[in-house]
Design goal:
Blueprint lengths: L5 H10 L13 H11 L12 H7 L4 H11 L2 H14 L2 E4 L7 H4 L9 E6 L9 E3 L9 H10 L4 E4 L3 H12 L4 E4 L4 H5 L2 H8 L3 E5 L14 H8 L2 E2 L28
Parallel strand pairs: 3-4, 3-7, 4-5, 5-6
Antiparallel strand pairs: 1-2, 2-6
Helix pairs in contact: 7-8
């Protein structure tokens, strides 16, 4: 069973639908950020399970919003069932209030910070930086050269597994014995079940990361993941993308991860 801190339980209850049948009106990113500001920061999250009305009233939260928060927090049974399911999938779960939450993500200024992170693999890689593969237009056939360039820097690659270019670079780098942070807004289970990725995870050379629970593949566009690449990385490789200065965000038209040609 996954052991969750109180603040992480609060984050899960307030921001995630806990099953396919859960129609709860969970907080959107703006509502979540405003709530954290109102109560005095993420360090106060666990107080919402103990003294919600007092804390919310002190923060000037409206009665209607307070009632909505209390309704979301009352889903403890649903959270227990969902947590057991996630535990069986082997993921770890971190809330923004946890000391293990990646400092590069939590300390980002001007970005939406994911309230919850799900992942497989070596969490230490999340705080070691790396080279951001932010351009999906890595020239065809250049993945091996790009990976070699990153390997020369003795650092990790950080990129979206849901984009062909960055995925190819990550896979090639892992084959060369390097390290990577693979971020996805699709299904963690799909990537975690790929033999070559699973082998890299077991060897401590890969961590998979998402703001979405394992097994969830709604086809919805990403909210946090593209920014997470920039947050975690501390360098950017541009040698192989001349003339490209802006990352093209993936769209909701991207196919589900399990339907993609992963090339393994």
């Amino acid at each position: 069973m996954v052991e969750l801190s109180v603040s992480t339980q609060v984050g899960l209850l307030l921001t995630l639908q806990l099953s396919a049948r859960d129609a709860s009106s969970v907080l959107n990113p703006d509502e979540w950020r405003n709530l954290c500001r109102s109560i005095g920061g993420v360090d106060q999250l666990e107080m919402l399970l103990h003294q919600p009305q007092e804390l919310l009233a002190k923060g000037g939260v409206s009665d209607d919003f307070t009632q909505r928060i209390q309704q979301l927090l009352s889903r403890g049974v649903g959270l227990a069932i969902a947590s057991e399911k996630w535990s069986r999938s082997g993921v770890w779960i971190l809330g923004v209030g946890d000391p293990e939450y990646p400092r590069r993500v939590r300390g980002s200024v001007g970005e939406y910070i994911p309230p919850i992170l799900f992942g497989y693999g070596n969490r230490e890689l999340l705080d070691q930086g790396g080279v951001a593969i932010t351009d999906e237009r890595v020239p065809e056939g250049a993945a091996k050269a790009v990976a070699a360039s990153i390997d020369e820097k003795k650092t990790a690659a950080v990129g979206l597994l849901d984009l062909q270019g960055s995925r190819d670079v990550i896979v090639e780098l892992l084959e060369q014995g390097g390290q990577a942070v693979g971020i996805t807004y699709k299904d963690l289970l799909s990537y975690g079940s790929v033999e070559s990725l699973r082998r890299a995870i077991m060897n401590g050379r890969l961590v998979l990361l998402s703001s979405r629970p394992p097994g969830e593949s709604t086809g919805a566009p990403p909210i946090y993941e593209p920014a997470m690449v920039r947050m975690i990385a501390d360098d950017e490789l541009t040698d192989y993308s001349p003339g490209v200065t802006q990352h093209e965000e993936p769209t909701e038209k991207d196919p589900p991860a399990q339907q993609m040609d992963l090339g393994f």
